[in-house]
Automatic annotation (TrEMBL):
Its EC number is 2.7.1.29. One of its GO terms (molecular function) is glycerone kinase activity. Residues 7-330 form the DhaK domain. It is an enzyme of class 2 (transferase). Pfam families: Dak1, Dak2. Residues 367-566 form the DhaL domain. One of its GO terms (cellular component) is cytosol. Keywords: ATP-binding, Kinase, Nucleotide-binding, Transferase. One of its GO terms (biological process) is glycerol catabolic process. It comes from Paraburkholderia bannensis. This is Dihydroxyacetone kinase.
Length: 570
């Protein structure tokens, strides 16, 4: 497994040095793997010290939560390993004043033992210390009592609440009671899409097949409580959420905060989708979501997956969550946007493109055009995987999805906008412009718009007039993107196709035969791009490395031209 590391034994110390370099309010405590606030007051005026930690590999926890308004110190063990007792004791001594210290501990045996022993040693030295255990993992509810459950991502919310209470000057008893009460109203459940890999290890802690996910995992690479088939995001979110809601017995009308936490290798895009699904589900249940966050707050190295946390709140607890903090990894207030959509007139199809009524001849032409577009759409959808594969070899792999959206847009066009050739081309261009992102949308929209203009006064073009429009479309693409024949683009399928079409027509062949020649030429042209050196577009960045596979855009042209074949000349 490739990692950006030096020696595996040095990762924690080097990580802490990197964190401290980015956080002027944080320093490393001597030779201990402990981060403390730089701005801690003199002992007699110190508030209750907030100390947490555990094994490393959960970044930005725990170092990201050191700062005024959250933690006074964190104690970092080796990766997925509890820190030693003496390091915890050193953190207590460095940060606690007469008001004492609160230790916030995730419910794992090693953490409870080492933090618990450090608390006893500190008490023996006259330092008041309380310990709060967080055990928010509801996945184990069928197998373990609440005090036996693991502590996972919801712990970050306890850091924030307790830190804000301490910053207000509350006593140790009050801060501890506030944290315990919050932890009692907190539940979390996670899902892994695969395992994670420890530094120095060649393999992950466990592996999942493409048709498996792990529900109810821990944050140290432990397997979950149930393995199932992958689910769409909405269904998976519901499965996690139901467990949390049932465990906390949250009822209609209650107020909660929502945290969607990434486990280290989950894109923010996917976390936001899960948050959307969870928020929608809670609203449907008439549960009031007061705050919501989606991000990687407590990870499991490079594990793909997420967890969902809910916490009951009232005005007092919300105020603690909203209080200011200097901890750089806290994601902010998490305020809910009540209106996320601004409704505007879409203007999906310009009025001039729409015929008010279609006479018999126009209706017949439109019906043929509609059937042709449906065939094109079907061909693009059927070949989505191949187009994705080709595009991934030279770009970002989005061509298949783009062509699928193009297919959906083409199929959705109402027959009323297809009454004449220029109207049909303009309407299709406008629809594709909105449906396709990236470069494909502008290219196809420009080409169709130019072709529509060429045929502006020709409701039902002849074959030669179609060829002129085809030429105009190619010129528009070339002008827009700077490509020409031989540059390994869609033009390398379009240009030989129109040339073959025109030549066949000049030789007296029927339109259907001429178009068959065009389809064959497009296919040959697309395959020939496999041996071309790319000179424009994203593939040009690869240079010779792109040679060997045909251009996806050219292959897409060959697919949709072939789909049009049965409808040409009839």
């Amino acid at each position: 497994m490739k990692k950006l590391l030096n020696q595996p034994s040095d990762v924690v110390r080097e990580m802490l040095e990197g964190i401290a370099l980015q956080a002027p309010n944080v320093v490393i405590l001597g030779d201990e793997n402990v981060l403390v606030r730089r701005d801690i007051p003199e002992p007699q005026s110190r508030p209750v010290a907030l100390i947490s930690g555990g094994g490393s590999g959960h970044e930005p926890a725990h170092g990201g939560y050191v700062g005024a308004g959250m933690l006074s110190a964190v104690v970092c063990g080796e990766v997925f390993t509890s820190p030693p007792t003496d390091a915890v004791l050193a953190a207590i001594r460095a940060t606690a004043g007469p008001k004492g210290a609160l230790l916030i501990v995730k419910n794992y045996t090693g953490d409870r033992l080492n933090f618990g022993l450090a608390a006893e040693l500190a008490r023996a030295q006259g330092i008041p210390v309380e310990v709060v255990i967080v055990a928010d993992d509801v996945a184990l509810r069928a197998h373990a009592e609440k005090h036996q459950r693991r502590g996972i991502a919801g712990t970050v919310l306890i850091h924030k609440i307790a830190g804000a209470a301490a910053a207000r000057g509350a006593s140790l008893d009050v801060v501890a009671a506030t944290a315990r009460d919050a932890a009692a109203n907190l539940g979390t459940m996670g899902v892994a899409l695969d395992g994670c890999t420890l530094p120095g290890m060649a393999q992950s802690s466990f592996t999942l097949n493409d048709d498996e996910i792990e529900l109810g995992l821990g944050i140290h690479g432990e397997k979950g409580v149930e393995r199932s088939a992958p689910l769409p995001a909405d269904e998976l979110t519901e499965a996690l959420l139901v467990n949390v809601l049932e465990d906390l017995a949250i009822q209609r009308g209650e107020r909660v905060v929502l945290l969607v936490n990434g486990l280290g290798a989950t894109p923010q895009m996917e976390l936001d989708i899960v948050l959307r699904a969870a928020y929608t589900s809670l609203r449907r249940r008439e549960v009031r979501v007061e705050r919501a966050w989606a991000g990687t707050l407590l990870s499991a190295l490079n594990m793909p997956g997420c967890s969902i946390s809910l916490m009951r709140v009232d005005d007092s607890r919300l105020a603690l969550l909203d209080a200011a903090t200097e901890a750089h990894a806290w994601p902010g207030k998490g305020c809910i946007n009540p209106t996320i959509r601004l409704d505007v007139a879409s203007g999906a199809i310009h009025e001039e493109c729409v015929a008010k009524t279609l006479d018999a001849s126009r209706a017949a032409w439109a019906a043929r055009a509609k059937a042709a577009l449906d065939a094109v759409a079907q061909a693009l959808v059927q070949n989505e995987a191949r187009l994705t594969e080709l595009d991934a070899l030279a770009g970002d792999g989005d061509l298949g999805a783009s062509m699928h959206r193009a297919a959906d847009a083409a199929s959705a066009l109402p027959v009323e906008v297809l009454g004449t050739a220029p109207q049909a081309l303009a309407a299709l261009g406008a629809s594709l412009r909105r449906a396709i992102a990236g470069s494909s949308g502008p290219f196809y929209a420009t080409a169709l718009l130019r072709a529509s203009r060429v045929l502006a006064d020709t409701p039902e073009p002849t074959a030669q007039e179609w060829a002129q429009a085809w030429r105009g479309a190619i010129e528009a693409i070339s002008e827009l993107g700077g490509a020409k024949a031989g540059d390994r683009t869609m033009i390398d399928a379009l240009a030989p196709a129109v040339e073959a079409f025109e030549e066949a027509l000049r030789n007296g062949q029927a339109v259907q035969q001429a178009f068959s020649a065009a389809v064959a030429a497009a296919g040959h042209g697309a395959q020939a791009t496999a041996h071309m050196h790319p000179r424009v577009g994203r593939a040009s960045y690869l240079g010779k490395r792109a040679i060997g596979s045909p251009d996806g855009g050219a292959v897409a042209v060959a697919y949709w031209l072939a789909a049009l074949g049965p409808f040409v000349g009839k």
